[in-house]
Amino acid sequence: MNAQAEVVVASRPSPQVGLVEIDRPEARNALNAEVREGLAAAVTGFSDDPAIRAVVISGRGGHFAAGADVRAFEKLGAADMLAQQTHRVWDAIARCPKPVIAAVEGYALGGGCELAMHADIIVAARTAKFGQPEVKLGLMPGADGTQRLLRAIGKYKTLMLVLTGDLFPAEEAERAGLVSVLTPEGEALPEALKMAERIAQLAPLAVRQIKEAVLAGEDAPLETALRLERKAFQLLFDTADKREGISAFLEKRKPSFTGR
């Protein structure tokens, strides 16, 4: 896959893993309209590609994304923001049926923190910093930040962060449950790619059903969520991958999953 836009580069580091990188190092990968549209196009392309089984999102130049491009906000009013319908761009990432891993180095602030939280797994360097500093501009998070942070780390940590705009070091974020894995500085992307490759070797239908059950069940009543899990579990018994997985286990060999 070629670059979707000059500031977003999509590639295949391995046949079953898609990599999406923001490339605006001069702006610490700030998310302007071009970047957001490029991200949506790249992730959608990988979502629709049957060969891709996992997606990694990262930023070039030492930072993940240092928020929105504030200069673009200066002359915008409420009607302009309504017309932009930016939630459509974010939905392309949130609704990706395949596992999405964020590889975070440097800053993941504002829209950058929200972008990371649209992923399913966050791999971060110990030196990375997260935050939702919009309140310092007289604004608030507007790309799911208050709600995704709330669900990740709880009410009290969330309100402390979004009301003060303070930065959240990666090590503290990992202890609070926002970060999945910590790495040394400069190792977030290699670790995320290794994790994506491990997931890509597993049964795609099972991986997809696991992601769907977790995300759909997160805000559902427990009984409803358990029913979703049971149905997904039962459906997988009629797949070729289930038969291959069981056979490989009994024959003591590595399985070869086809996604059928």
Would you write up a description of this structure?
With 260 residues, the chain is α/β, with parallel strands linked by helices. It has 2 domains: 8-200, 2-enoyl-CoA Hydratase, Chain A, domain 1 (Alpha-Beta Complex); 204-250, Lyase 2-enoyl-coa Hydratase, Chain  A, domain 2. It is built from 11 helices and 10 strands. The protein has helices spanning 33-48, 78-84, 87-94, 111-117, 145-153, 155-164, 170-176, 188-200, 204-217, 222-235, 240-250; strands spanning 8-14, 17-22, 54-59, 65-66, 100-104, 107-109, 121-125, 129-131, 167-169, 181-183. The strands form 2 sheets. It has a 6-stranded mixed beta sheet with strand order 1-2-3-5-7-10, sandwiched between helices. It has a 4-stranded mixed beta sheet with strand order 4-6-8-9. It is globular, with a radius of gyration of 19 Å. The model is unreliable at 1-5 (pLDDT under 50).
The shape is globular
Elements, N to C (H/E): EEHEEHHEEHEEHHEHEHHHH
Mean pLDDT: 93
**Based on the structure given, which CATH architecture of the largest domain is correct?**
Alpha-Beta Complex
CATH homology superfamily of the largest domain? 2-enoyl-CoA Hydratase, Chain A, domain 1
What is the CATH level 1 assignment of the largest domain? Alpha Beta
Percent in helix: 40-55%
First-to-last CA distance: 24 Å
Number of contiguous helices:
11
Structural class: alpha/beta
Output the CATH topology of the largest domain.
Answer: 2-enoyl-CoA Hydratase, Chain A, domain 1
Largest sheet: 6 strands, mixed
Strand order of the largest sheet: 1-2-3-5-7-10
Task: Give the number of domains.
Answer: 2
Strand percent estimate: 15-25%
